[in-house]
């Protein structure tokens, strides 16, 4: 196990990590984009915190490592999404900005999870024939530190439900591990899994035009060129 620092709330940190990783590691067969946060605020890059950590940071990381994944094919990308994608709304003119309204933090999280599912869908389309496959997964509702930023008044109401009904982290990892290691999943590249089974996501998450729009907007927001994984000058 090698520990390397990576802060997804900083695109500068993502680039530094990718550069260091590519120098040190000649092989990459599996990338699991697992990090997630549900919190308000903005990043040093000017994007809403949840949307950058959950989607934009992972999008940039994946693109910067994509050539190495292709050279080591067969390889896989697993993107941890959520059933919360069903409440997501993505608009190209407001992408990356905190949503308005009293439920801004929750909406931002849902938007980022819809982006995760669409990212896997479009990535699969662009990688067809390369032996690099990708999958979006819903891990279930898992008792991790995801909700550590919840308002203080909400925690006494919410935390008992978490302890009673949510999965522990080991149980929550099962679908990600299934998509990372199960043989014969290649024909399902770009699809959505929950409880270690193929499932259909919410209709907006199956919208190829929306997936393409998100991809192009994400490239622009993180400073990538029109194709490939190299940052624009």
Automatic annotation (TrEMBL):
Keywords: Oxidoreductase
Keyword Iron: no
TM region positions: none
Molecular functions per Gene Ontology: oxidoreductase activity
The organism's place on the tree of life at top rank: Eukaryota
InterPro entries: NAD(P)-bd_dom_sf, SDR_fam
Family recorded in the similarity comment: Belongs to the short-chain dehydrogenases/reductases (SDR) family.
Protein name: DHR13 reductase
Name of the gene this protein is made from: Dhrs13
